[in-house]
Design goal:
One of its GO terms (biological process) is protein deubiquitination. One of its GO terms (cellular component) is nucleus. Its EC number is 3.4.19.12. This is ubiquitinyl hydrolase 1. By secondary structure, the chain is an alpha+beta fold. Among the domains are: about 70 residues, Herpes Virus-1; about 150 residues, Cysteine proteinases (Cathepsin B, Chain A), CATH 3.90.70. Helix content is about 40%, strand content about 15%. The strands form four sheets. Strands 2-1-3-4-5 form a five-stranded antiparallel sheet, with helices on one face. A hairpin with a 5-residue loop joins strand 1 and strand 2. The longest helix is centred in the N-terminal third of the chain and has 29 residues. About 20% of the residues are buried.
């Protein structure tokens, strides 16, 4: 309707494409307009059960039901939702195929392809994986790319043991966090670890961090939605929550053991904030020393305040 290319959603009932609710809300309006004819006559019990308007995000391929006002995890018996998701992925891959080949040829003929980062005497290829914009989420992508290029910080999280927060029935399948899940059922550390691993695998040109974004919605209500946000404020919230989750133990795994086995930081560089030290305080933390001298008696007092 508005011809906006931001946050496109496709209706799985009529295949029309509209913008999301945080752009101009035409996808939601499309659902509301479709409900108007239903109010003119009495709906049967069968119609009441099947009248669920489901749409899919063309960028992250997550599905959403406007009637339930929540993200949809399950699929139909014939797996139609997954078929639509695979079809959209094939369209995206074919659209970028020619552009990838052109860029690859340019890289092969330039010195950028052979440029390496030398870290501690070893060589590591430059990371070429980007992050897809989920709708004005460039503030989050900028922070994730910056943190992923801090060697000690990134290596620490990549070496953490993987913790699956789902039962055996959904093991091996891609998970989509919904707003109906409780805050205790999500782990920011685990999703952050998965995102960093995906950025450094180099198996794809772009990665969609929708799972991490939905966890952020759960534990950081200020960042819900697809509107623009402050990148520095997001970084502070992210580091604070990572620090608190690491302090409390990582889903049954002792944080102190993880820090001892995976961190090469010296004891002098570790700063304790609100309890035990973590990799967050070791890299981003510090101690502010305040000195007060009495002009009458000459007494000197010192106070040390940790900061992040």
């Amino acid at each position: 309707v508005c011809r906006s290319n931001k946050s496109p959603w496709v209706c799985l009932t009529c295949s029309s494409v509209h913008c999301g609710r945080y752009v101009n809300g035409h996808a939601k309006k499309h659902y509301e307009d479709a409900q108007i004819p239903m109010t003119n006559h009495k709906k049967t019990e069968k119609q009441e059960k099947v009248q669920h308007t489901v749409c899919m995000d063309c960028s992250s391929y997550s599905t959403y039901c406007y009637r339930c006002d929540d993200f949809v995890v399950n699929d139909t018996k014939l797996g139609l939702v997954q078929k639509v998701r695979e079809h959209l992925q094939n369209l995206e891959n074919s659209a970028f195929t020619s552009d990838r080949h052109r860029k690859r040829k340019l890289l092969e003929n330039s010195s950028l392809n052979s440029k390496l980062l030398k870290v501690n005497g070893s060589t590591t290829a430059l990371c070429a994986t980007g992050l897809r914009n989920l709708g004005n989420t460039c503030f989050m992508n900028a922070i994730l790319q910056s943190l992923s290029n801090i060697q000690q910080f990134c290596c620490y999280f990549k070496e953490l043991p993987a913790v699956e927060l789902r039962n055996g029935k959904t093991a091996g399948r891609r998970t989509y966090h919904t707003r109906s899940q409780g805050d205790n059922n999500v782990s920011l550390v685990e999703e952050f670890r998965k995102t960093l691993c995906a950025l450094w695998q180099g198996s794809q040109t772009a990665f969609s961090p929708e799972s991490l974004f939905y966890v952020v919605w759960k534990i950081m209500p200020n960042f819900r939605g697809y509107q623009q946000q402050d990148a520095h404020e997001f970084m502070r919230y992210l580091l604070d929550h990572l620090h608190l989750e690491l302090q409390g133990g990582f889903n049954g795994v002792s944080r102190s053991v993880i820090l001892q086995e995976n961190s090469n930081l010296s004891a002098s560089n570790k700063c304790c904030i609100n309890g035990a030290s973590t990799v967050v305080t070791a890299i981003f933390g510090g101690i502010l020393q305040n000195e007060v001298n009495c002009l009458i008696c000459g007494t000197e007092s010192r106070k040390f305040d940790p900061f992040l």
